[in-house]
Amino acid sequence: MKNRFLLIGILLLILGTNSHAQKVRGVAIGGVNISQMNGDESVGYHRWGFNGGIGGMVPLNKNGSWLIGVETLITQKGAHENSDLMKYDAYLTYAEIPVLIHFEDKKGGFTFGTGLSYGRLIRSPKEEMAFTPNFRRITNTDFDKNDLCILADVRFKIWKQLKFNFRFAYSIIPIKTDIQYEEVVSTKVETWERNFYNNTLSFRLLWVFNEKEPQTKKIQR
After folding, report:
1. Contact of 140 with 131, CB cutoff 8 Å
2. Quick check: 163 and 208 in contact, CB under 8 A?
3. CA distance 152 to 98
4. What whole-number percentage of the chain has pLDDT above 90?
């Protein structure tokens, strides 16, 4: 808990001591996640969840084309599979702090970003499994309470201060390790081991406060 507040304090310090002390942009965020977990033997983005919170962005240069952004989110991830081989449901709810560097294309209206996010489980994970007699999980471990992800982000203006945002997030450290599976093929038993990684697509709406509209040059006659 102390480490979490220390991280938030450092991020706020970065925003507060920006060398180009321009207007801080506030951001209200709401949307959905579509998730899967690589390594769990399920396939496809079938787990829907909430993604929302607040954020802030501060320009890093004079014209505001480069910005640093910090968010605090509640985000739901996991996986879902309903096939002949197995039935599987996993529900994971995180408090998440993404930090991104953005480039804003003033002419095209698009903003591109990349960065990292730290997530902490705030509810006990739920995991429900049902396998066939010939396919099963033979070992299990708990989900790690921490999730560190790499992010890719793009956003564009819809109307006034309202923007659409697409984000891809992938765990760079496993959230569950050393999971072993067993499958009987004919008379042969095959075993293998997997680590789990969150793999998430986010579709969000952003309402940006205090954003300066691009100025158009007047033509002098």
Report:
1. no
2. yes
3. 11
4. 65
